[in-house]
Write a structure and sequence with these properties.
Largest sheet: 4 strands, antiparallel
CATH architecture of the largest domain: 3-Layer(aba) Sandwich
Structural class: alpha/beta
Shape: elongated
Number of helices: 9
CATH superfamily of the largest domain: Peptidase S8/S53 domain
Helix content: 10-25%
Strand order of the largest sheet: 2-3-1-4
Oligomer: single chain
Order of helices and strands: HHEHHEEHEHHEEHHE
Length: about 280
């Protein structure tokens, strides 16, 4: 398997930013730790397998059954020569659902060494689409937001997003999401998450903010009284819907407050198009 995830608390107390920006190999620079956690760190920083995908390998996603090319004598010969440069013997183990091959390395090596071996193989064989270490992976991140446990739709296996697994890979960094809705309200769990924005409502009666189009996308509320939106329409409280959606996307996460956002390192561009009675 390329990645192994868990919903248990982090084995290594490393934040997501550290996972993305720094290698677990940094932990190996310290004095040897023979505790269980130290042993786990060593295992996570090492591997005895490599994933090799050849250009003629086909994923099962498109072809119902994966097509994993057999390791021909020529390919095995190139593999062995690449391994000899690092003093290891290589042998093919099995294929994967992505059409790749799992290659066994004769001894456990640091992930950085296996990455160098993978580059050596790519340089020797033009038929290799990619080669990379088959790393041991663990879930590095479980939010401490007190209401995260209520957000079953993030982590429930059958009908949920399984965001807790996706967060090991990406958290929305560098992404701006436009929320085309009622605008936004200041909120502690969204502090620093908004960038830019615009109010596109021209009708002052619908806008309820005293003016027409401008760069202020703040939400003054969309509450109504009976009959305001047409004969027979009922009264309603303000929905604050744009703020709710923004929070679902990018609420500040692991801050010990409120809820978690799906892409909590993304930024929200609030676009106000809905006011009283809609828009």
């Amino acid at each position: 398997m390329r990645k192994m995830h868990s919903t248990t608390p982090p084995l290594l107390k490393i934040c997501v930013a550290a996972v993305i920006g720094a290698s677990p190999l940094l932990a190996l620079a310290a004095a040897p730790d023979m505790s269980a956690q130290g042993e786990a760190q060593m295992l996570i920083g090492q591997t005895d397998r490599m994933i090799v995908k050849y250009k003629d390998g086909k994923s099962a996603r498109k072809h119902f059954r994966a097509h994993v090319p057999s390791m021909s004598e020529l390919r095995m010969a190139i593999l062995k020569r690449a391994g000899q440069q690092f003093g290891v013997a290589l042998k093919a183990l099995h294929g994967t659902s992505t059409g790749a091959n799992i290659v066994q390395i004769g001894r456990r090596m640091a992930v950085a060494e296996v990455a160098a071996l993978a580059r050596e193989l790519e340089a020797r064989d033009p038929d290799v689409e990619y080669a990379e270490p088959d790393r041991i992976m663990v879930a590095q991140f479980t939010p401490n937001d007190p209401r995260y446990g209520e957000q079953w739709h993030y982590f429930e296996n059958t009908g949920g997003l399984r965001a807790n697994v996706a967060w090991d890979v990406a958290t929305g960094s560098g992404v701006n999401v436009a929320v085309i809705d009622t605008g936004y309200r200041p909120h502690a769990d969204l502090a620093g998450q908004f960038v830019g924005g615009y109010d596109f409502i021209t009708d002052t009666a619908l806008a309820a903010d005293g003016n027409g189009r401008d760069s202020d996308a703040s939400d003054p509320g969309d509450s109504t009284i009976s009959g305001q939106c047409g004969s027979g329409s009922g009264a309603s409280n303000s929905s604050w819907h744009g703020t709710h959606v923004a929070g679902t996307i990018a609420a500040r996460t692991n801050n010990g407050a409120g809820v978690a956002g799906v892409a909590f390192n993304a930024k929200i561009v609030p676009v106000r198009v809905l006011g009283k009675c809609g828009g």
